[in-house]
Amino acid sequence: MTHDLPENPSARTAEIAGSPATASLDLASEFLSRRTPLGRVRNVLHRYPAISPAVVLALSIIVFGMLNERFLAPANLSLITQQVAVVGTLAVAQTLIILTAGIDLSVGAVMVMASMFIAQTAVKNGLPGPLALVAGLVVGLAAGAFNGWFVTRLKLPPFIVTLGTLNIFVALTLLYSNGATVRGDDMPPLLTATGNLLPLGEVSITYGVIIMLVLYVVVAFSLSKTAWGRHVYAVGDDKEAARLAGIRVNRVLLSVYLAAGAILAIGAWIQIGRANAASPNAGVDLNLDSITAVVIGGTSLFGGRGAVWGSLLGALIVGVFRNGLALAGLDVLYQTLAVGVLIIVAVAVDQWIRKVRK
Amino acid sequence: MITAQELDSSHETRSQTPVLQAKRLVKTFGRVVGLDGVSLELFPGEVLAIIGDNGAGKSTLVKCLTGAEIPDEGEILLDGKPVTFKRPQDARDAGIETVYQNLAVSPALDVASNLFLGREVRKRGILGSLLRMLDTRRMRDEARAELLELGITTLQDVTVPVENLSGGQRQAVAVARSATFGSKVVVLDEPTAALGVRESKQVLELVRNLRDRGVPVIMISHNMPHVFEIADRIHIQRLGKRAATITPQSHSMTDAVAIMTGATQG
Which of A26, A27, A99 should be substituted to probe chain B, the one whose Cβ sees the most B Cβ atoms within 10 Å? Predict the structure, then answer.
């Protein structure tokens, strides 16, 4: 408020707290971000966060297609979508939680726990397929409620809560299943139906992929077209501002963890179909893969910014890189190296985009 | 020496009931006494400024009136009827809208979404009831109309994320939201802090528009010229108590500062 002082001397005595003269700084950053071509690019990326992963995916498909003509073969492209189905589904749940400025390290563990419950209740307890799936859904919702309860009631950081529940869920799964894998052939056909192929011309995709895509449509709709979606963004953006605007922050957070739990249970079904088995050891490390997909997809780890479609693109980018590098004859370690580079580049780009106004 | 009680008694002769009234509010935080028996009256169609030194209890007082804090003792009357606010939403439902100092806007959401944050409008028919789909177009149209009615001409595009706006524009969004939904009272906490001269003028103009629409306004401010320019009455807080209620006509800025700092006693 330095402008006021020369005009009105009494303002000097009145200005006890003294307000920072941020107005001129605002003008300067406005000038910088609007006038340069780079600034314009940044503004566009800021507004449409799914653009950068879409560009990366398109470029990587073109490059890998030029490196090896087998890459673009319909059979190979179908394979990539099948490989992406489980991570892509976990990434839906992870996106919801990261949008609220949280993180869920337990997604893989919850998914495995639900898959063991689905398999065991069907095979050991003889539940029919649909009821076994309901049992898995209940397990997923319970796990989500557990995480959500710690985050909203005890106000613990999601990172710590889910680091703890990751271990708890892994242990519970092993205790419950005695560490034994259940073969898909022993299960009711419904449970492995997600692995069945649906031929679409030359390409054939699994029902699991279709279920994943439906999840993306439903969650994308909820996030962009409903009040709940707005509230998820608002809570992740600025929790206190959301509370003051009359949003029940804890209720929104809890609903997000419950939705994530339900999505993970569906992921468990897709995983059983994909592996044609339910194994207590497969997929626990998918937590990091799902975070990778979300981050590469342009959703900010600081919350409130991003879109669920980006996470699908992120999951596809990882799938395309792994598949393309393998077809190019490179050692599997280079796939991991490439994914590592992708993560760091994605976060760096996110930081740069967020500098539009701060 | 005139005591606060005598000063305030002048208003009880008014025939009007206060729109919002606080009676002997007490609020303590551990051993710190935030409010020590504060009373306040807001009459229809007026701008009441609250001034006071840091820690005098301005923000605590306003938080109690808007449900962000629950007073330990005392009574709040809205249109003469006792009310209790447990959450900000309770006060909002009762028609008291607040613009907080830290601007309760969501930076990543656009102007229209921010205006309707927490009370989104759904589409009519099955799309709204079953799919719970938002009527984005209607909210945008209403946002535009509201901004126009309030005379906010600097916000042309209601689809811009709020973080792309200047400080004054953000403040305008926050004030516009309170004006859209504040049916009884609008409370502004430091509305011109961190704004430049031109932007401050616009916000003060906005406050004047609000009053002219018949909505009484409570405004906390540190900025004496702004207070004296816009306020009908000035409530002075000092050490958790009401030191005095004055008017810009009865006292000068120097008098107000003297009461505020305890140099004179009202």
Answer: A26
> B28: domain CATH number?
3.40.50.300
Return the CATH number of the domain spanning residue range A47-353.
Answer: 1.10.3470
Q: Which residue type, as a one-letter code, is found at position B239?
A: L
DSSP per position, A45-80: HHH-TTHHHHHHHHHHHHHHHHH-GGGGSHHHHHHH
Report which residue type is found at A166: L
Please name the residue that has the structure tokens 């008694």: B9
Q: CA angle, corner B1, sides to B250 and B236, nearest 5?
A: 50
The domain containing residue B257 runs over which residues? 4-95+182-261
pLDDT value at position B1?
Answer: 45
| Separation CA A188–CA A130 (nearest Å) | 9
- Look up residue B136 and give its two tokens: 């984005």
pTM of the model: 0.82
Confidence band, pLDDT 50/70/90 cuts, at residue A14: very low
ipTM: 0.76
The domain ranges of chain A are 47-353
Residue B146 within any structural domain of the chain: no
Residues 21-50 on A with a CB inside 8 Å of B are 21-24, 26-27, 30, 43, 46-47
pLDDT at residue B43, as a whole number: 93
